[in-house]
TrEMBL record:
Residues 32-99 form the Bifunctional inhibitor/plant lipid transfer protein/seed storage helical domain. Keywords: Signal. It comes from the Eukaryota. This is Bifunctional inhibitor/plant lipid transfer protein/seed storage helical domain-containing protein. Residues 1-28 form the signal peptide. InterPro entries: Bifun_inhib/LTP/seed_sf, Bifunc_inhib/LTP/seed_store, DIR1-like. The gene is A10p018370.1_BraROA. PANTHER family: BIFUNCTIONAL INHIBITOR_PLANT LIPID TRANSFER PROTEIN_SEED STORAGE HELICAL DOMAIN-CONTAINING PROTEIN (PTHR33122:SF55), LIPID BINDING PROTEIN-RELATED (PTHR33122). SUPFAM superfamilies: Bifunctional inhibitor/lipid-transfer protein/seed storage 2S albumin (SSF47699).
Amino acid sequence: MGKNNTKILVTALVMVVTAAMMIEEATSIPICGVNTNDLKKCSPAVTGNNPPPPTPQCCKVAKAANLECLCPYFTRSGLDTAKIKALGTNCGITKKPSCLP
């Protein structure tokens, strides 16, 4: 591959990565004080049979979110509310929303 072809390939790759990042940002919807893409950081901690503890990034999102506002989404999501409650406990969130008694 020639020097010019390599430059073109690298430029094209940078453009594709930039476009992908822009699309990712564009599809994030703010809801209850956080972006939906940020909520995905907590997905591993609330799914599966034996979920891992939440990551520091997940806890940061959970602490920033208006959990009471998220209650309707918790109940419609089909997620186990015990796992959501455990996430809050593991992140040090003491104020539990009404939907997670």
